[in-house]
Amino acid sequence: MTYWLLKTEPSEYSYGDLEQEGKTRWDGVSNNLALMHLRSMVKGDRALIYHSGKEKALVGIAEIVSSPYPDPRRNNPKIVVVDIVPRQRLAKPVPLDAIKARKVFAHLPLVRMPRLSVMPLSSQDWNALLAMAK
Predict the structure, then answer these.
(1) pTM here?
(2) Are 22 and 85 within 8 A, CB to CB?
(3) Are 103 and 128 in contact (CB under 8 A)?
């Protein structure tokens, strides 16, 4: 299993929306590096959902439930999407400031490349971030 971090603007689509819908197509990604990461996802992978904007915090866990496929709303096979389902809201949000305050996370794309919307996480980083949510 591979771990990911997916960023969303909660005023456009929040983790609460995902919980309410039960499943969604993760779309709207156009950055080449983010698309490369989307293409690497496989069914069963897990993702931390990060609310950008004013909130700037990790808020929930989702599961990838499809292989990447071309976005049906775009006429470009290079633009891919995946389907995700909610798995668990974090007991407490993990703010970006708290992540940045720990030197162990200085290498994270969330810290180094804040505009990237899809990024991989190591299992060590995944576990350390989840520990912060307890």
Answers:
(1) 0.96
(2) yes
(3) no
63 vs 52: CA distance, rounded Å: 19
For residues 15 and 133, the answer to whether their CB atoms sit within 8 Å is no
Give the pair of three-digit tokens for residue 46: 């897990």
End-to-end alpha carbon distance in the chain:
22
Gyration radius (Cα) of the chain, Å? 14
Within 10 angstroms of residue 49's Cβ, the number of other Cβ atoms is 26
Q: How many CA atoms lie within 13 A of 6 on its CB side?
A: 33
Give per-residue pLDDT as tens, 83-134: 999 999 999 999 999 999 999 999 999 999 989 999 999 999 999 999 999 9
User: Residue 7: which H helix or E strand, with range?
Assistant: strand 3-8
Closest to 82 in 3D by CA, of 40, 33, 20, 21: 40
- 3-class DSSP state for residue 49? strand
